[in-house]
């Protein structure tokens, strides 16, 4: 492939990595990871609510990695309540998983920025053979893509397996019990998915630029070296 085309591919990959870093940073600070509705089951059972009356007992909830909001509705009108995970909810949530999600988000942002810098360096500079060259580009893309996948897996398990929305809805509730009525992942969660796909696409762009996947090449060289050693 010609040098101008390689520059174009590397510039495209660098801009995509930079966009992913900015998107992930915006996602981390937002409250748009999960949206849903919560049912005040205690109040609904007390009045035997059904049909149109049931809507008076359905509130709303949305949250991110640091804070969120829930609308507590038990038949007497909605009342919005704001909350933060640190330190308010730290005792009731799976803290190790939640902190791991934040940690991997940070790693994703850092390595996306590193990858963007090295892509631009390879486009306009003279790449080295090691971490500045194609091996490094594969490495940064692989780490960023892996972090994005881990973020989605860990956060999904926290929400679905550990029933995070119900724990938040029932925080400091002594009289009423809330159940999750509906729940769906929101924009910030899908932003992380897009970031993972973009870094996978970047690995394909490196391959299209004419660079072989580095590990297959190293295996071949190791095999040849071993054969030479046996001859002597």
Task: Describe, in plain words, how this protein is organized in 3D.
It is a multi-pass membrane protein. This is CLRN1 protein. Keywords: Membrane, Signal, Transmembrane, Transmembrane helix. Residues 1-26 form the signal peptide. Belongs to the clarin family. There is one protein chain. The chain is of the alpha+beta class and 232 residues long. The protein has a single domain (3-209), classed as Butyryl-CoA Dehydrogenase, subunit A, domain 3 (Up-down Bundle), CATH 1.20.140. The protein is 59% helix and 14% strand. It contains 7 helices and 5 strands, in the order H-E-H-E-E-E-H-H-H-E-H-H. It has helices at residues 3-29, 41-47, 95-124, 134-161, 164-169, 187-208, 214-231, and strands spanning 34-40, 58-63, 67-72, 79-84, 178-185. It has a 5-stranded antiparallel sheet with strand order 4-3-2-1-5. Strand 3 (67-72) and strand 4 form a beta hairpin. Helix 3 packs antiparallel against helix 4 and helix 4 (134-161) runs antiparallel to helix 6 (187-208). The radius of gyration is 24 Å and the shape is elongated. The two termini are 39 Å apart.
